[in-house]
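Hi P.,

Sorry for the delay on this. The queue was packed all week, but I finally got your sequence through. Input first:
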Amino acid sequence: MELKVEVGCVEDVTMSEPVSPTGQYFNSSVLSVSIISILEFENPIDDSSSLALINNVFLPINPRFSSIMVKDGEGGKLWKRVEVKGEDHIKVPVFPEGLSPESYDHYFNDYLSKIAMDPLPQTRPLWEIHVFKYPTSNASGSLVFKLHHALGDGFSLMGALLSCLQRADNPSLPLTFPNFQKSPKQDSEIKSLMSVVPHALCGALNTVLDFGWSLLKSSFLEDNQTPIRSGKEGVEFRPINIMAMTFSLDQIKKIKTSLQVTINDVITGIIFLGTRLYMEETCEEAKNLTSTALVLLNTRSIGGYKSVNEMVQNQEAQIQWGNQFGFLHVSLPKLHQYDQRLNPLKFVQETQNIIKKKRNSSAVYLTGMLLESVRKYKGPEATAEYIHNTLRNSSMTVSNLIGPVEKMTLANQPVKGLYFMVVNVPQSLTVTIMSYMDQLRVAVGSENGLIDPAKFRKCTEKAFNIMYTTAVMAK
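Then the structure:
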């Protein structure tokens, strides 16, 4: 029997709302970017309640989950409410029974690559759920959400996903997250006028330099072709490999304390160092070639994720939905830049200094104003082309999200692990980071045939080990 999930009254089905400019950029003729989120379960998956969860929990979160994108006849696009057939969005792949977890690892990786490359049909709401019921090395079963980036950015979509889950220890209590907000400055920390003025001047100079560099990188300057960047046209349509690594959040915190930097500084430094080590091991001559990372920033002024009820009923939460982010062009520090032997701590400090300078500027907001001007005078397709060039001319993208502190369940099924990946990006390498309980998951999306995932994993884990040994164990 065909099950139809009604998403509103007749008036709702025909009601439309404008697609945000960024939503149009990410679903255009030159860009069609999606986000894949993977939930790993401790026990075999029971999907008997899937349709009920979609109907009662997932769809009410935001009208876009029940809408398709249509043209308005004036060059713009609208979200149009439609009926949702839940079974059209749930995919359950079938593979041979009775194989080893290692064998299912290969099936799962191949299936993730297929999900990443298959476009979402534009004739129905832009999301899918894939139920992988076979045991892998990491889980007894996995649930894969694929959501189009036009629906929202990683913060919005991960917030929607997490709001469908509950705490394992006490479902009546909300999930909690590390505090996002900066602590208020004490009176003794308030800067004097003599220190504020140089800081403001430095910020203004950084803004001019960063905005000019961003313009050049988006328009003319391409990174070198290296072991992490093929530079091929249409790289976003090529098959990719998605693999995930797990690091101890406690050990990351110890490095942070030892170096007196942030957790983001530590993990970004580890990723950059691991990437340079991979480049060196793959091709000695390429180890210090120009490589630029786009580090994504959430530009919301908020304290954390919202619950389902807040997303559905709170107007402010609805306003915060969507794509609200910027990016920093960050040049990867070079190996042996300071002396002939590798100093991992200086590598992290150099990474911190670069990102700190980038943050002490308004280039992200000027870039946002530039994109809006391009959209206004040339249209969303031209703006999408500009964003495409920005991505294609750099070597990699790094983005991170903060996950809950407590163990989660979905329909009373314990969640063992959680990570995500951004796909269909015109780059050969994408790295995402997400915390969950006491772990940090680093996922790597890499172009098949160019990047060796096993070698990249080994180099990143080597970077972590030497960083931890030098910063913590050697003291």
